[in-house]
């Protein structure tokens, strides 16, 4: 069973005990800043590991509850899989609790647990009244059917029960897509002395591995993931649902900020005009007017812009979905289906939220015709829905496409006739763009490998497939390798794959030393020393020895007699020709020693090499030329 990764969030009103509860669950104090300690409120996002087993890993985000820190709260909640709503027993549901509930609903988070904290502060009779009040307040929200756990973080009452409830809930929950394009909305940027720039965030989708080439969008800065950490522990890979810190090369802290997005694919759009479907909060205090300034929170970005309606000029109470457009002052990185929150900049309040219909919106006329077009776009054309499904899964059969898109077989078959779709195996379909992505990934990996190991023929195909299996189906990678071989982009030599432009070679910096070794070996003819002595004398580093030997042996530049002795290829060939010229169809050891003047130490391994190379065949005490 593949390991599953989840991040849960603590949400709720200020001073209801989120940070204390997090510490009770994890034994980690997530208030790191001096100001947080002094004021006893959370300002920045706090993170801690909660639980890990062979099959599941769970992390916690403690989000600030104070209204002034709602921006950090949205940035934290946007990447989580389950919310623990914290309500203090001595206060019940408060204004920030309600606002957090609205935000969670707009962000599409439906999995939750209610933790009623500070139970030691109230008696049993009062606690029952509080529970009834909370039940009533949460009716009709995303938490109306959620389990309730009574806890006290200081005495640890109910903490084990809450932890087990979290694990149980997540074990039954769908995991995030680890095979889609990698995307990490950045919520923290800092530097580590001696290491450079580090970014941190909750991995939305896909996976990332150490050494991978990535892009910071919307800035377009190409970087490499030098090192990864998950909860302060080094990691070779990180997967959707995990909190991860990535040490980046080729970029300074000043070039990145919260809201930027780290990606591995070009499938994400950079845009300022977004077609959206939104819902408004139930009790708006002020009118929302046409082209009114808004603050859009999407991922970890916070961008100013204006809301544009096409069927009204203002609203205050609206329970249904509204199709409209956001025109933003700065570029964001998004794709269809992403969730966002809208807030009024002044006076500050959450006014609504929704999801992205089309990240590449255009300017439309006011009127019902535009609303009808947006409604059609909201449903998505068959080709768009198939494309979205394939971007996530990389490869799907027709049956799987029908299931994921809710289209019928005829609609799917007609749409798949488009040139952007590729039927690459008996059952599987993919996109031209995905094949290009795999091709580029293979090219980069092979190029890096050739630079690191110039003496080797290439990468073992099984190793290539294993390295990409977290992102792409094996059959798809094999298809791209075969297609690349047919178009002369790649080449196959046995089980090894390389770039067609690559030829194994001795690194120029070591060529003089390897040439000297070969010359010394040739000079000593048939009376050679241990090969290790030549290697030591030439000063060839241990890291290169095996690759150099393999390179020479494959090209018959040296011939092994045994593990210790090797002949120069030309010397060996001359010895074979001389022996053949001065013997009949068969000969014995004594005759060979007489002709070549070799001691038994060299003679026996030499003749055994002739047998192994099928130059001769041993018949009792004689050798017969083949």
UniProtKB/TrEMBL annotation:
<dbReference type="InterPro" id="IPR000795">
    <property type="entry name" value="T_Tr_GTP-bd_dom"/>
</dbReference>
<dbReference type="InterPro" id="IPR036388">
    <property type="entry name" value="WH-like_DNA-bd_sf"/>
</dbReference>
<dbReference type="Pfam" id="PF03144">
    <property type="entry name" value="GTP_EFTU_D2"/>
</dbReference>
<feature type="domain" description="Tr-type G">
    <location>
        <begin position="3"/>
        <end position="174"/>
    </location>
</feature>
<keyword id="KW-0251">Elongation factor</keyword>
<dbReference type="Pfam" id="PF09106">
    <property type="entry name" value="WHD_2nd_SelB"/>
</dbReference>
<dbReference type="InterPro" id="IPR005225">
    <property type="entry name" value="Small_GTP-bd"/>
</dbReference>
<dbReference type="InterPro" id="IPR027417">
    <property type="entry name" value="P-loop_NTPase"/>
</dbReference>
<dbReference type="InterPro" id="IPR015191">
    <property type="entry name" value="SelB_WHD4"/>
</dbReference>
<dbReference type="Pfam" id="PF09107">
    <property type="entry name" value="WHD_3rd_SelB"/>
</dbReference>
<keyword id="KW-0648">Protein biosynthesis</keyword>
<keyword id="KW-0342">GTP-binding</keyword>
<dbReference type="InterPro" id="IPR015190">
    <property type="entry name" value="Elong_fac_SelB-wing-hlx_typ-2"/>
</dbReference>
<keyword id="KW-0963">Cytoplasm</keyword>
<dbReference type="Pfam" id="PF25461">
    <property type="entry name" value="Beta-barrel_SelB"/>
</dbReference>
<dbReference type="InterPro" id="IPR057335">
    <property type="entry name" value="Beta-barrel_SelB"/>
</dbReference>
<comment type="function">
    <text>Translation factor necessary for the incorporation of selenocysteine into proteins. It probably replaces EF-Tu for the insertion of selenocysteine directed by the UGA codon. SelB binds GTP and GDP.</text>
</comment>
<dbReference type="Pfam" id="PF00009">
    <property type="entry name" value="GTP_EFTU"/>
</dbReference>
<dbReference type="InterPro" id="IPR050055">
    <property type="entry name" value="EF-Tu_GTPase"/>
</dbReference>
<keyword id="KW-0547">Nucleotide-binding</keyword>
<dbReference type="InterPro" id="IPR009000">
    <property type="entry name" value="Transl_B-barrel_sf"/>
</dbReference>
<dbReference type="InterPro" id="IPR004161">
    <property type="entry name" value="EFTu-like_2"/>
</dbReference>
<dbReference type="InterPro" id="IPR004535">
    <property type="entry name" value="Transl_elong_SelB"/>
</dbReference>
<dbReference type="GO" id="GO:0003746">
    <property type="term" value="F:translation elongation factor activity"/>
</dbReference>
<dbReference type="InterPro" id="IPR009001">
    <property type="entry name" value="Transl_elong_EF1A/Init_IF2_C"/>
</dbReference>
<dbReference type="InterPro" id="IPR036390">
    <property type="entry name" value="WH_DNA-bd_sf"/>
</dbReference>
<protein>
    <recommendedName>
        <fullName>Selenocysteine-specific elongation factor</fullName>
    </recommendedName>
</protein>
């Amino acid at each position: 069973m593949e390991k599953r990764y989840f991040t849960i969030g603590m949400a709720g009103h200020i001073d209801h005990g989120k940070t204390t509860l997090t510490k009770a669950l994890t034994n980690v104090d997530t208030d790191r800043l001096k100001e947080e300690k002094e004021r006893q409120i959370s300002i920045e996002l706090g993170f801690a590991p909660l639980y890990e087993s062979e099959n599941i890993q769970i992390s916690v985000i403690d989000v600030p509850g104070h209204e002034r820190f709602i921006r950090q709260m949205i940035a934290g909640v946007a990447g989580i899989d389950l919310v623990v709503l914290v309500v203090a027993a001595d206060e019940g549901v408060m204004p920030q609790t309600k606002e957090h509930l609205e935000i969670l609903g707009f962000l599409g988070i439906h999995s939750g647990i209610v933790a009623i904290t500070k139970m030691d502060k109230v008696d049993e009779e009062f606690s029952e009244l509080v529970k009834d009040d909370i039940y009533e307040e949460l009716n009709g929200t995303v938490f109306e059917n959620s389990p309730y756990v009574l806890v006290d973080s200081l005495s640890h009452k109910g903490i084990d029960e809450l932890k087990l409830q979290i694990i149980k809930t997540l074990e039954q929950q769908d995991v995030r897509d680890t095979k889609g394009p990698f995307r990490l909305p950045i919520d923290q940027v800092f530097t580590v002395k001696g290491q450079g720039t580090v970014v941190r965030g909750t991995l939305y989708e896909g996976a990332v591995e150490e050494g991978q080439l990535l892009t910071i969008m919307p800035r377009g800065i190409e970087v490499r993931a030098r090192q990864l950490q998950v909860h302060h522990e080094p990691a070779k890979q990180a997967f959707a649902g995990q909190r991860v810190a990535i040490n980046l090369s080729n970029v300074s802290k000043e070039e990145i900020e919260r809201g930027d997005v780290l990606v591995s694919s070009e499938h994400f759009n950079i845009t300022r005009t977004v077609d959206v479907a939104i819902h408004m909060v139930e009790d708006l205090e002020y009118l929302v007017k046409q082209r009114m300034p808004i603050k859009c929170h999407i991922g970890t970005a916070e961008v100013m812009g204006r809301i544009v309606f096409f069927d009204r000029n203002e609203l205050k109470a609206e329970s249904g979905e509204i199709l409209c457009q956001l025109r933003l002052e700065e570029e964001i990185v998004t794709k269809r289906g992403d969730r966002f929150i809208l807030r009024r900049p002044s006076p500050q309040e959450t006014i609504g939220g929704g999801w992205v219909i089309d990240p590449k919106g255009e300017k439309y006329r006011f009127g019902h015709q535009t609303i009808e077009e947006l409604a059609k776009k909201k449903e998505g054309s068959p080709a768009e829905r198939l494309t979205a499904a394939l971007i996530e899964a990389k490869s799907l059969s027709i049956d799987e496409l029908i299931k994921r898109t809710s289209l019928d077989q005829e609609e799917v078959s007609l749409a798949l006739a488009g040139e952007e779709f590729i039927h690459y195996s008996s059952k599987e379909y993919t996109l031209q763009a995905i094949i290009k992505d795999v091709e580029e990934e293979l090219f980069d990996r092979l190029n890096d490998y050739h630079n690191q190991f110039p003496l080797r023929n290439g990468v073992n195909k099984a190793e290539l497939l294993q390295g990409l299996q977290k992102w792409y189906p094996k059959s798809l990678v094999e298809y791209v390798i075969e297609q690349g071989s047919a178009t002369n982009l790649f080449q196959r030599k046995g089980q090894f794959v390389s770039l067609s432009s690559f030829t194994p070679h001795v690194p120029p910096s070591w060529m003089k030393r390897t040439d000297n070794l070969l010359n010394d070996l040739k000079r000593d003819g048939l009376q050679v020393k241990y090969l290790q002595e030549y290697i030591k004398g030439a000063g060839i580093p241990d890291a290169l020895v095996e690759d150099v030997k393999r390179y020479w042996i494959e090209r018959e530049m040296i011939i092994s007699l045994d593990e210790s002795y090797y002949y120069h290829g030309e010397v060996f060939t001359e010895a074979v020709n001389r022996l053949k010229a001065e013997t009949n169809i068969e000969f014995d050891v004594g005759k060979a020693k007489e002709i070549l003047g070799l001691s038994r130490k060299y003679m026996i391994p030499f003749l055994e090499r002739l047998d192994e190379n099928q130059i001769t065949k041993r018949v009792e005490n004689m050798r017969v030329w083949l």
